[in-house]
Design a protein that fits this description.
The chain is 35% helix and 18% strand. It is built from 22 helices and 24 strands. Strand 8 and strand 9 form a beta hairpin.
Length: 919
Amino acid sequence: MASTSKMPSTSEDDLEEEFEHFDDFTLASSWERFISEIEAVCRKWLADGTKNLLKKDAICLNISEGLYKVKADLKYEMKSYCMEYYFGTLNDGKGKDWSCVLHDLQLFFGVNEFLVSLSLIKKKFLVIAPQSASGVVLDGPEASKLLSAVAIALSNCSSLWPAFVPVHDPSRKAYIGIQNMGTLFTRRFEADRIGSQVPVKLMHLEGLYELFVSKFAFSNEDLSTHLFEVSFKMKLTYCTLPYDEDDDDDVQEPEAGSTESGGSPKSNHHNKSQWDDDCPWSEWYSSEDPVRGFELIAVWSEKAFESSLDMAELENASPLEADDWLIFPCLSETLNTRSLFFFSKSTWYQNIAAFLGTEDSDGKRIGFASQLRLLVDALEMSMEAKFIEDFVSEHSGPETLKSSAVIPPPTVLDRVLKDLFHEVEGLQLGFSDGDHKNSRTIKGAPLESLFGQFCLHALWFGDCNIRAIAVFWIEFVREVRWCWEESQPVPRMPSNCVIDLSTCLINQKLHMLSICINKKRQQEQESPKCGEQKKFPSHVKEETQVKRCLSPRDGKTQTSSGERESLSRPDVVKDSVGHISNSGHSDTVKLGDAKHSACIRRGSAGVVGSMMLLKSQQNMHAPFTQEPPVMTEDMHEERLQAVEALGDSFVSTKLYYRQFSFLIDNHQFWWYYYPYSRAFRLNWRKTFYHQVLHYLETLRPCQLLEQMVCTAFRAAADTLNRTTFGGLKQLTTKIGQLNLTMAATLRCLQTSNLSIDTEDIQDLKRLCAIFEHVEKLITLAASFYIKFMNAPRLLESIFNDCYNFYAPRMGTGSTASEVKKDFEKKQKVGRREREIAASMLTTPTANQSWRKVLSMGNLLNGHEPTLREIIFTKHGHLSENYYGGHAPRGYQHELETYRMYISGTSNYLSVALAVASCD
């Protein structure tokens, strides 16, 4: 069939040649017209080239391998066909025999790269198939005729592309194909598969070797006695066993009534061990392992064998002796989905989920990120009410509050409060070493604090709906009030120290209350019991009942004008009769020590070291002083507002008290006493207690939820930050970025002006999505660390591969056509790391062994390969006397005359054969 294209020409010879090649379609058959249509499409693809095809309608099949395709629709005798042209853009096809991202035909017949007349043909081939449900040609003659039409069209185009037609049943993955190699030779392809009843002989390397030799050794004799030099490559794939529930029949489940017993809610878990039992989030939920398993690949590079006995010996070799080892993690689909799902580890929380209908059919739960999203929804709803009690009743509150927001039963609430208010010994409060350094920039409560734990419980209580939060908060405040009334310490809160103003206001109030209760307990211990004489603190003694001694002369304290000047000096001390002494130093006060006192001073806390009054020669006494009250952030703001209101008068008073406080602190200025008053000591504590309870009980819902959101994000992030993952640099950087992002986004909740708008809520929901991405990466890193803690290089390499694959896709909204769907990167395993990788294939249990048919050899820890792939090749020489006149003089080149690809297990066997011939 001549070409129909017309090129511009000016010579008569060219015009005559053009008319000689003119096609008269009035005489052509339908088959010839079909060939012409194929030829026209192929010429168009050849003319466009790779760059233009990529700009037009090329479909990407694999980015890493640079494989694309274009297609065209054709018709022949009332039948429709689709012809697809596959082409590659990368020039690294050599050595990719075992790439899992290759097309089946590239793997079967090695068409990813081949040599023709010293020119490389890379990843270019055609596939033509009927447009039917099966997509294969079931009729043999039709398949041969279709393949011939494509071969003729490619020959007319002077194209060396191989062409294939799918045949037989689709499950067999059977093909026939042909490739015209110019005027030298032709390659023919054939592939088929046995799906059952694989002959035992073909399950072993020896039988497969003889199968390949039989294709070119035309002899009826025993092939095992002949020597044929054959090149051999092999790839064995081993898979870790999936989690088998049948092997856990001996695990005791908790009895029906045990879940209703007391105890800490977070410790009331299943008896069955989970992979993340030692992870910090395990007290709240149990995550599904993102690493479902591993594929271990042992590769034997190309070797030459001469007999089947050599193959039998290789089959008995250990996979640890292979030339290369590769490992490939099989990751969970949850890494590609919007949310991470988790098994609820706490039985009582799981019962709540079943009661509330918040658990799906698989018993899966959601992690911190999804619960934080629900908390943001509760914040949005909290702006519709003024009082937290408005959300408690189902018949009150905003109309938007759905009836589905039910409250957990009282028994669950009691259990949560019991866990929250039980005293924890040895608890490190405040900023912990496990918290991220940027965590304190978030104005929330520390992770282990009472309010921090309240917020984490609230994430799971009633699935974090606003009604459940309201009930939980009201009961929480009642427990706090009980602590004061019964003089019981506030759990998870320090009873001393300075209030940390960088935390949220609720945490500051609880800290103040804890200090007040501690002082109250100390005072109650000092108070006399019923029937006993009233006692004073040990350093007060009887001097509080004696008037202070006055001057022997007139009982008055006199101060001259000159002496008043000296009183302003901190190093000058005046006694009770007006004598002045230069102390020159500051000693500690010896409380209750009246040994050198001439008289007992009322209000005296004891003498001040060795300081003496000059004329009376008496020891100088220090008065009892009221310790300064602690203040929270709002109290400081009130004080500043008072300063602005009072102006200079307040400033002068404050300066006076500052000077007075300075003198007291340095113990250098006493000429008056400060009487001890127990009632005055308790005054500020009672006042502040009422302020704390009033604040907690009258807190607006929006103010409560704002502080809960900040604290919950901070506490959840600090919990995840305590995960051990081997210090992976990329993840460490990601966690630091998350904390900075949280601090910036949550700043809108720290203004206390109740001006949260829709845009702020959307920012918080986007923050939840970012948190979810980091949570996924942390979970993945923790799983890898548990498995590869003894192989740090392999741990870092595998995680970096996963990170580079998933991190750019998180939150981008990329479609499936834009990116690869599955992670496919393999990592090379070093010689010293093979034992660690192989240990993941644990020895099969008795329950698992009977399911396996150990018949293929090359066992690894008792496991046979799940897939064995072999490539046999035989090379020959092609000289010019095959087709004399067309080949260059002296042309001599060794080429691949026979190639057989074999893959299979004990259940199936696929064979693909490529033969080069001179017909």
